[in-house]
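chain below, 307 aa
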Amino acid sequence: MNKALMTAMAAGAILGVGVVTTRGTQAHADAKSDIQAAQNKVNAAKAKFDKLSKGTKVTEVQGGIPADLQKQITDAQNNIVNSQNSLASAKKDLQYYLDQKEVLQKQLDAANAKVNATSDNDPSYQQVLTDFYTAQYASQDNDAQIANAQGWNKACGKYVQYYTDQLKALQDKAKSYGGKTVTVKKVDQATLAAAKKEYQAAVKELKDAKAGKANWKIPATSGHNKYTRKTAKKVVKKAKQLFKIDVKANKVYSYKTIALHKSGRKLEKKGTKIPVYKIVKKGHKGFYLIKGNRVITANKHDVMKIK
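prediction:
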């Protein structure tokens, strides 16, 4: 019998043969769920990679166009995009100052009314007058910002039109070289590389899930197979405790499987001493196999190894 399989079965049988059967069934179900979820991720990542590999349709001018002319066309296209972005930003600024104008005007009206309502001989008159001039300055400054934003909007609009006209002229010039507008498919290599990396990670996850199923496959003890009640009892006698651990942290959980599903997890109280029967790995992380065929983290911040 496989040694790892015997150890896992023995640890599960500590609480009785019936517990082994129950835990084994649950482990099988969890492992199957993990594998299916990992397979779905692989399928989705593969579909995404295949789609990106085919590229996207792009309309461009091709033919006997000189390289410098093609560069001018590309530059004009980029200039249009940049000027459109600048125009959008200028419109946003203008709207902000227009919204502020109404607020500042109300503040100025209130300050003016307070000046008119305060006597020159009033001790607070000087402060009231200062508040009025402050509100007046803020309103005037905002008006200047509005004028500036309006001018910038107008300039950006002219740039957009200028580069649009320039692009059209360059494209018309390109036609004289026998160039023609065609639709081609282009692949974004950076996006494709990222999708490939995502696919490879999904494949590894599927591989780990399948390996996890092999690690946690516990045969049923009921029925007339070779793992009978009598056999299970014999294995229990051979089960070897490696060492014990002491739970150090307040929130340390043990899980039904190495997949670490929240469903069925159990909070292990701080200060609890727990026997360990096997050390297992998931990726770069270590775990301990404890009673009930459960796993718990081997992180030194959470648990401490004792004799």
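The chain is about 60% helix and 15% strand. Residues 49 and 178 are 36 Å apart (CA to CA).
thats it, cya
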